[in-house]
Design a protein that fits this description.
By secondary structure, this protein is of the alpha/beta class. It contains 15 helices and 16 strands. The chain is globular, with a radius of gyration of 21 Å.
Length: 458
Amino acid sequence: MQHKTIIEPFRIKSVEPIQLSTETQRIANLKKAHYNPFLLLSDQVIIDLLTDSGTSAMSSAQWAGILEGDEAYAGSHSWLKMERVIKDLTGFEFILPTHQGRAAERIIYGHLGGADKTFISNTHFDTTRANIEFSGAEAIDIPIDAAHDMADFHPFKGNMNVAKLEALIAEKGAANIGAVILTVTNNSSGGQPVSMENAEQAAAICKKNGVLFILDCCRIAENSYFIKHREAGFENRTYKQIAQQMFALADGAVMSAKKDALVNMGGFLVLKDEVLADACKSLLIITEGFTTYGGLSGRDMEAIAIGLEEVFDPHYLQYRIKSTEYLGSKLRDMGVPLIWPTGGHAVYIDAKALYSHIPSNEYPGQALVCELYRLGGIRSVEIGSVMFGKYDDAGKLIPAPMELVRLAIPRRVYTQSHIEYVIETFAEIMKERPNVKGYRIVKEPKFLRHFTAHFEMI
């Protein structure tokens, strides 16, 4: 019998209470947080869809592994276990542990970057771009054209435009390319998957030109699911085998283990070249810790090693992708404009279409995240002109290509009824959308302003 209901392939053994709130309380909370959901306290949030990073519920096996954590400064058995699992998955010789993904980004892109360098990606994520630009380098995004068509059912909307890649390398000069970074899945472009064919094409171009090819692999298990079910020739491969094949194409990879390693903290950098690895190890020791812990405790490394194996379980991945698709399908049926098809970890709402009366310089995505919190206590994140907008020389906003709001679903945390609550809240969003006003920024830092900026309603 084929069941229609998506059930969580686990039993809940421990619970954390949710503090329920009234709309009046939430309006006061929003004002105190300067209309920035990042500045809300977690106990003020009913459903937290701000990020899927570090918000996973760990398994009983992971919690048991934590008790095995070896906290030796050098050469702990927890490090050896983590190293063994990562080598088996990635095939890379040089493994550098870090406390999270952006630390690995800072090390590798800080070393490779500089004022004369260019980095090219299908779409750089916010911390990736910030680390690159902080070094003085430029970061260029070249997603395929279908990435900007919200309704186009392209099976691999996360792909890189390989024709543009060749042209950019020729224009900038191969020696001036810091690296080509393929993000799988493509987070800032709707959490969309990347095909193996596209990865092979990008890798071949990089190899021909002597350019480093790096994977941002924090959601590679989810990406492998889409390859198995959408790309011909992979039907009989396991998810792990698909991931291993993609790793084999790259010269290195950066991972925030807070995503597909199912843990609350951790990351790593893996490399093939010993000279580059040695240079990065020096930076690791200076800024993160010794090479066998890199800012992680032994118990963190135990949990990562177990999580990297659990994430490729077919039942888990089926539940993960299908439950995300369920939310997207229900919202789409309701008339909510969104990126279709849904990606692996999140549903991305097209705030520009939802609030067509709010111009980009009044941040329609920020308006939506505030409305979601006001009406339902749901915390989400703007991925539009707040996160990626820039200013020209006259101080005028250069809008982002899309005004999105991401509903990132933590792994193994929420049940079907929580998702139904989100759907009901969107019914209210749709009713009230003509009355929603935009926002202006009243305080912002130079980099990553979305984390700490202050807003006021227009």
